[in-house]
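Hey all, sorry for the wall of text incoming. These are the two entities for the joint prediction.
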Amino acid sequence: VKTTLFSDKKAVTISTDGPFTVVGEKINPTGRQKMAAALESGDFDYIRELAVRQVQAGADVLDVNVGVPGLDEPALMAQVVGLLRACVDIPLCLDSPSPVALEAGLAAAPGKPLVNSVSGEEKRLETLLPLVKERGAVVIGLLMDDEGIPATPEARVAVAEKILKRATRVGIPPEDVIIDPLAMSVGADSQAGLVTLRTIQLIHERLGVNINLGASNASFGLPDRAAVNTAFMVLAMFAGLTCAITDPAKLTSIIRAADLLLGRDEYARRYIGHFRQRQKGPAVVVKDLA
Amino acid sequence: VKTTLFSDKKAVTISTDGPFTVVGEKINPTGRQKMAAALESGDFDYIRELAVRQVQAGADVLDVNVGVPGLDEPALMAQVVGLLRACVDIPLCLDSPSPVALEAGLAAAPGKPLVNSVSGEEKRLETLLPLVKERGAVVIGLLMDDEGIPATPEARVAVAEKILKRATRVGIPPEDVIIDPLAMSVGADSQAGLVTLRTIQLIHERLGVNINLGASNASFGLPDRAAVNTAFMVLAMFAGLTCAITDPAKLTSIIRAADLLLGRDEYARRYIGHFRQRQKGPAVVVKDLA
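and here's what came out:
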């Protein structure tokens, strides 16, 4: 299956045949004080810089989350989407728990954006799927529902089936739904990684859709989180993961290496291209970084 | 399947249920001028230091290769095995293309060592299997034969079956044979990684034996080899690899992280233990490091 996102001029295809798609996670104030402060003070240069740096580091898509308590999230979402559109020409992933903020982002975003996210929760399905359909966007579906996060891979796959069914009912094609199986901390439960990996395998085999992960939860509460995040990314890619919301500066090299080893990078072109790009630094189209 | 190696006092079990076993690769002069010079000049302090450092970094077993053109390999093998026996109490992996050197190592090694290696080549099977049987050792079987390295996973598995059959015939039980599927460079052939991974999966499913890899060949000729070696280790572990001859200082952290994510490390005990060991440095039993 191929899912194609668009910015103003650029198409990015997420494919179950690879290569892997990197969604840059850094434009998100959750747990990032400097980003929260930038949003509060309106320091948009910092946001532009983060955007450009992520693209240089290998991001194919940029996640945009502007949720800071007390700020007007819909207005800020539209504003930040607008400034990103002006400085990097790659598709955006609009990230918010608020349907109103997502609606504002969808109106401001170029091309065909990604919406992060619906889940199996009734209220989100009812509110968001029609918005996604109307805008012709792509949506991420998290594998949790009104009962919480199912404990077993089988039960998580049932939520995926529910989300796909409800999307189809409003006219969203299956390739425009990307399933996110959710990663829990292996620090809290040593079987948590395996549950997510098996869920990915089952979704890959049975549903064949693209699969996303916000891959840094797995290491929560553990020392040397980079080792756990790196290993988890590679394991998940082998299981069937096709994109991830992650830090491109930390994980693009290992992702390109895994693609190469999985036979998805002829003549190691992308791997070597990424290595050279890292060596020489800035080489990205910046439209409006004044 | 469980394969148990012994030093003088310590048992190390390589198991298809994990956790993963690390064989330290550094005592080997191939491509390491300092090691070659140490062997030529008889600078055994350097070898002791390498041994202790590898154990501290997480090695469960130590590979011993002393092949330097012009030196008396069997005598040197016996000597180095003796000094390692006196300074680190972990099982050894005797590594040589020379049956005479392996025989000398087997006579000097404590407990139940690992022999690296036989292959499907007739001459090696005939010469080495009886030595392994007589000494009660464990042997690594490389998936190549008199025709070379087979191109397909199926053909490599056929070599594994041949090696296991021949071992059984001389009285070596299947758990005392560890299969090495061989890794070729993905720089030269972008499908090479996938062939090795599929071979590991097939051996794991059909033969159920322990599987080893000298994991740094995959990255030969590529830049940033650490990224490729790291990704390959994790992919191979997911496919069914149970031990590897590798650099413990570089790969133990990611190996422990992968074990944790694969549900083989309850309460993250080994992962956190390794992290603490790395933080505090030396804490190893050194019997004779004067």
